[in-house]
Each structure stands twice: as C-alpha cells, then as structure tokens.
Amino acid sequence: EPTMRNYAIDRRFRVLPPMLFSGVNRRIMEITRTIPLGAGFEQHADKMAQLLVAYEGLRETRLKEIAPYYGGLLVDLGRTDEAIAVFHSALGLAPNLRVVRTMLIDALRRAGRYPEAQQMVQEEFDLSQARVKGVTGGAVRLSEYSAISLSASFLSFGEVGVGEQGSLKFTIANLGTATLEISRIQALGRPFSLAASTPRDARIEPGESLALETLFQPLRGGRFQSTLEIVSNARGRKTAEVRLSGQGVE
Question: Could you tell me whether strands 209-216 and 192-194 are parallel, antiparallel, or unpaired per DSSP bridges?
Fold first, then answer.
C-alpha cells in the first residue's frame, strides 16, 4: 500500500504523510491514490466531495489526525469559517498540534480575522520566550517583530472604458508582535494609482489593519499591468508587492 497520500493545498494536489490505514481511512486512500499529483481541483470535484464525506465520518473519532487534511481541504474550497471551526475543535483536544496552529493562523488571515490571527502569533512568541528563558536562565531574549499580511497579491480590474475609472480595495495587516512601520506605498506606473486618501507612510499596530484603495484609469485601449510596492520594516519581507492588471476598452 502507498506510504504517502495525495492531498489538496492551494487548490492543487500534493503529498503529505499518511494516516493509519483503517476504516474510512482506507476509503480516503482509495480516493486520493487516483488523483494525479499537481492536478487542479476543477477536474476532480466529484472526488473532493467524496473526500469531504469521508473526513466528516472521522470527525468525531479521529479529529486530531484528520484536522490538517480536512481543514486544509475546506480552506482550499473557500469554506474558511468551517475550516476554522475544525482547527479550533482539534486544538481543544490537543492544544500543541503545531501544524494545526499554523494552519489556523493562515485560515484566520484569509478570513480577514486579523486580531485573532495576531493573538495566536503573540501566544507563539510568548511560548518561545518562555522556552528560551528556561534554557538560558533568562540570558537571551527573543526580539519582537512585525509581520505583513496582504489580503490580495493580485488585483484584476477587468475591462474599464477609456477615460473611466475602476477601483479595488485591499488590506494590509500586521500579524507580528511589534508595530509595522510602512515607509512607502507606491503604484509603479500609469494608468494605475492610489486613491488620494492613501497615506505616504503608516504605522500598523499588532492585530490591526489598513485598507487601501487602488485606481485604474486607462487613457487608451489595451491591456495594462503594473505592480504596487509596499516598503516596511516587516521581518524577512521588507518589500511586499501586489500585481495589478486591467483592460482599457475603447
């Protein structure tokens, strides 16, 4: 029998470690082994429906084991609130399931529930601080950090008439433990721009967010692409980008 299992992540099927082969799990194995790795969701909607039924059958007895699989599939299907409930239930049984905690933070972020996501990040940070102090006798202290999260990495304005204006909004959130300091927000190239209300710089406290409005005003027909650049003090991601696309129509 296979020792690895196909599984859905970001709307593509990947491989994750197996669960035990028994009962409904054998049914899960039979379904997933027929799905090619890297296959898109659209070609396997019927099998995804079967997987959801199989996971639901294990929810009462094997929730800790199936939570990453079941909850992850719900997230990929856009059923984020249901996934969050699955992750919370699993953590109620076993609070230290790190993979589930990580997936819950991501699900909360996707749902726009930034304060809850940041609170979990803060809890992880506090636990790490406690562990380090325990090992070093308090000689070493972890540095607080800011972490940027964008509600969208790509904005498509679709078709907009020449001389008219399209508008789309997105959100910048801070999921770190320290203030996120944004030093520049800039749309690189016409016909894209930022609304007049956009600040030149900004400070976003942990768990808080900032909504921004992006504009597309084509002066001629054709397809346009550009990038929105956000420069901040975020750890490991000093520059974040949002890709922009729009079609000018005569």
Answer: antiparallel
